[in-house]
Write a structure and sequence with these properties.
alpha/beta, Purple Acid Phosphatase, chain A, domain 2
Length: 259
């Protein structure tokens, strides 16, 4: 199987559109939180409408998609609508879907190809391989529910990386998620939250027991962003994971590890 892992898109539309274009080359696309951006001047309503329609377009291709929320994905923390920014015509029905969903990402589950916060799902790919996925919601209090062990391979999404790990540096990371990983030992975990930091080592993986924990170290929002997001490609046939990081707007580099 081939998995495309990323995080921290912060409502940068060119990155969403790139993901949609290449998604059919992979068995699954996983986004580890911060799809939206609390500071975006379009307001949260327009972001939610775009996200819903983006998922609609993805599942028509078809694409297997799994998402967890991050700290920027809470509409209550920012204005729904900014003055002078009109809503697109005929989109109130989409906002009603979000208003009636608990939690709101459940509105994105348009069919069996999509897993979101709180979901535990077994994906079955055309290759005959299976992948269990658990999507942990972001919580400001740091709470992480106990992970229910799954048959391997198993991918767990949680926006904040495990505490005291190289992929959390220079931040502290989540102690609760670190404990959950140690107890349950999934095959892989995907986080974001801690962006690429100039001058730091910027590790994109760390082994915790039998689990390989990933963070794509996304380029932080603002300024001139590259045409594609930083991603990690997991290839089970080759037994390798490749981190593709954009150094400048026009060039990237790849680092590959054995699984």
């Amino acid at each position: 199987m081939k998995l495309l892992l990323t995080a921290d898109l912060h409502f940068h539309i060119p990155w969403f559109e790139w993901l949609r274009e290449v998604a059919s080359e992979y068995d699954l696309v996983a986004i580890g939180g911060d799809l939206l951006d609390l500071e975006n001047q379009q307001g949260m309503a327009r972001q939610l409408i775009y996200l819903y329609e983006w998922v609609q377009r993805c599942v028509k291709r078809p694409v297997n998609l799994t998402i967890c929320t991050g700290n920027h994905d809470f509409p209550s923390g920012a204005p729904l609508i900014y003055p002078g920014v009109p809503l697109p015509n005929g989109k109130l029905a989409i906002l009603r879907q979000f208003a009636s969903a608990q939690p709101w990402p459940q509105a994105l589950k348009l069919n069996h190809q999509v897993a979101v916060d709180g979901d535990e799902k077994m994906f079955r790919f055309r290759s005959g391989e299976n992948l269990a996925v658990t999507c942990c919601p972001y919580r400001a209090d740091g709470y992480v529910e106990q992970l229910r062990p799954y048959a391997l391979p198993w991918l767990v999404l949680h926006h904040e990386p495990p505490a005291n790990s190289l992929i959390a540096t220079p931040k502290n990371g989540s102690l609760a998620f670190a404990q959950a990983i140690r107890r349950s030992e999934p095959t892989w975990s995907l986080s974001g939250h801690v962006h690429f930091t100039v001058g730091d080592d910027n590790h994109f993986f760390e082994r915790s027991g039998s689990t390989i924990c990933f963070n794509c170290r996304q380029n932080p929002p603002g300024g001139l962003l590259p045409p594609e997001p930083n991603v990690i490609i997991v290839d089970s046939k080759r037994r390798e994971a490749t981190w593709r990081r954009w150094i400048t707007h026009g060039s990237n580099e790849e680092t590959t590890i054995e699984l």
